[in-house]
Design a protein that fits this description.
Two copies of one chain form a homodimer. With 363 residues, chain A is an alpha/beta fold. Helix content of chain A is 40%, strand content 23%. Chain A contains twelve helices and twelve strands. The complex binds 3-isopropylmalic acid (2 copies). Chains A, B: It is an enzyme of class 1 (oxidoreductase).
């Protein structure tokens, strides 16, 4: 049997620092659990642009297609703000999503009990919050053609196209229903079927797929109302299924409800490969945080928890994932805090590396 | 001199009830201030569909084009859920917006001090909140062509088109900058320029228009981050300018921060007419609330405050608008509450009509 393989793309900003902590955990699992990962590392985003003039080299793309899972840190930074659209750091990430065909983006919005007071929302509104947002990730207005800036009647016009085929809506919906089956069996689908025909088709296809999951209670909500309801009473939701653009906004809104962005992981999954594992990329929800990069202040938990998702969804190591998540929760309960989570009086923030060590100690 | 003219479209659900309170105030202004409005009334939404088979009759559309301002209650209801897309109640509203060319939608998100505890957010995060969202209302993915559900490679595909010309972006931007000049001189423009070419053009045009307003501090934010920042620290914003679809979602998110949707008005403004007044439609942000329609429980304040916006933006009666707004605030401070705002112990909710009377008494 070959070892499970992992491509690590630390990327920009705090990406490398938080990823260093994940590598400690990978090593720990090799030592203590006897599961050795074949780890390779490469560049993405601004780091790749600096070396190759593109935010993702073809060789890196090819590697990503071959490994069992990709783990990404973060991309972007002010240094790259003036680059042309086609070579911006984000394009590296978007290329990975598209070419690996990672259509199902899982974004848990979970409020850790020890951190509920960091939320801008009242404690009782968010404590115990545990939503899973499934965002369609390879289609919609992110990739639809025609797109671009064109000349028309003597002025320019910016065009993007929202496009969803039945197949695209359906495969994402199936992954959302499957998740709902393992959770509280409630799925809310969000679109703007009152305004957009693509939303009408979305609602129709999700309803049809729902017939295969009679145990799941399916509801539909307009995306604007969805944003309201997330703010008003987020605990009403279990799984939310929505498109690429709505998912971008609604999942960020949901993430911020928890008040601790530095804690939130994500998984982007595609179709099963020959070995039965889904194509997969894991990344923290937070960005590259250039303002604190290199200072050892970043919170590595989101990246560590992204690796926990990899253990669960790519490597059939659900128990190990549970243990890793429990270790993170224990560390928080013990009051260990990186700078992003230590505005309480008298709590001294620990460094990125101390946080990683604390998680390992808790394991 | 002719009287100022007003077309009232109560619409569906609680629309007629809340509008009845506005009519009391219009009468009061006629009596006490000697300003008589020529008021006509007509149907929109489901109510128009029931009578004419369309959610807005051509004659009503023609009337709307002629009056100084339109005041709309709300449209929609479960009775109309299964209607064809083309005759749904919402289409009546969208037709008004499009044919009157109401490109600038002003949505204040204001937190009334007496109501700050209704917010799901902590008091200190929202008390004193006063944001103005300017949403482009006549273009973007709401109206772009091609649109529809098409057959392609043996399956259906739902298509909508995001389309913005420089002219469209610019005229909305000017109205946003003008508002910022009258407020705290800060404008944040939101798009997804990292993903969408239409967002790139948006950012470029807004930046260019900003050169004409050197006193206004202009910033740009990706819309997903915008959603996060609205939840995290909404008071950082003064005026926000964004497109039709982002505006739909972000303004609803912002509205819900205040916790009292029943209080929020909106204005949709177009180009100046021959008499110098802008084409204008005013409507509450809340919907038709079919669950409580006809029971006298609805909060008329959002509709009353929409009329206050009409006084300010259509009729040059800013002082009268200030007085009306102050009257509403006084009534709230006195503890008068409709059902939506009375979950406090010992507070007995008043009826829609009592609330209207209380506002008049405070005037
Ligand atoms: C970085 C950016 C391209 C990306 C997106 O818009 O999808 C990010 O916001 C995300 O949600 O992962
Ligand atoms: C009713 C609907 C068509 C409308 C919109 O999407 O614009 C509403 O949500 C709004 O924001 O005014």
């Amino acid at each position: 049997m070959t070892n499970p393989s992992l491509l690590i793309l630390p990327g920009d900003g705090i990406g490398p620092e938080v990823m260093a902590e994940v590598r400690k955990i990978i090593d720990w699992i090799g030592d203590k659990r006897g599961v050795t990962f074949d780890v390779s590392e490469d560049l993405v985003g601004g780091a790749a642009y600096d070396k190759h003039g593109v935010p993702l080299a073809d060789e890196t793309m090819a590697k990503a297609q071959e490994v069992d899972a990709v783990l990404l840190g973060a991309v972007g930074g002010p240094k790259y703000d003036d680059l042309d659209f086609s070579v911006k750091p984000e394009r590296g990430l978007l290329r990975l999503r598209k070419e690996m065909d990672l259509y199902s983006n899982l974004r848990p919005a979970q409020c850790f009990d020890a951190l509920a007071d960091f939320s801008s929302l009242k404690r009782d509104i968010v404590s115990g919050l545990d939503i899973m947002i499934v965002r369609e990730l390879t289609s919609g207005v992110y990739f639809g053609e025609p797109r671009g800036i064109f000349e028309e009647n003597g002025e320019r016009v910016g065009i993007n196209t929202q496009r969803y085929t039945e197949t695209e809506i359906e495969r994402g919906a199936r992954s959302a229903f499957e998740l709902a089956m393992k959770r509280n069996k409630r799925l809310c689908s969000m679109e703007k079927a009152n305004v957009m025909e693509s939303g009408i088709l979305w609602r129709e296809v999700v309803t049809r797929v729902g017939k295969d999951y009679p145990e799941v209670e399916l509801s539909h909500m307009y995306a604007d109302n969805g944003a309201m309801q997330l703010v008003r009473a987020p605990k009403q939701f279990d799984v939310i299924y929505t498109d690429n653009l709505f998912g971008d906004i609604l999942s960020d809104c949901a993430a911020m409800l928890t008040g601790s962005l530095g804690m939130l992981p994500s998984a982007s999954l595609g179709a099963p490969m020959a070995n039965g594992r889904p194509k997969a990329l894991y990344e923290p929800v937070h960005g590259s945080a250039p303002d604190i990069a290199g200072e050892g202040k970043a919170n590595p938990c989101a990246c560590i928890l992204s690796f926990a998702m990899a253990l669960r969804y790519s490597f059939d190591m659900g128990d190990e994932a549970d243990r890793l998540e429990a270790a993170v929760e224990k560390v928080l309960a013990d009051g260990v805090r990186t700078g992003d989570l230590s505005n309480e009086e008298g709590v001294k923030p620990v460094s990125t590396s101390d946080m990683g060590d604390a998680v390992i100690a808790a394991l």
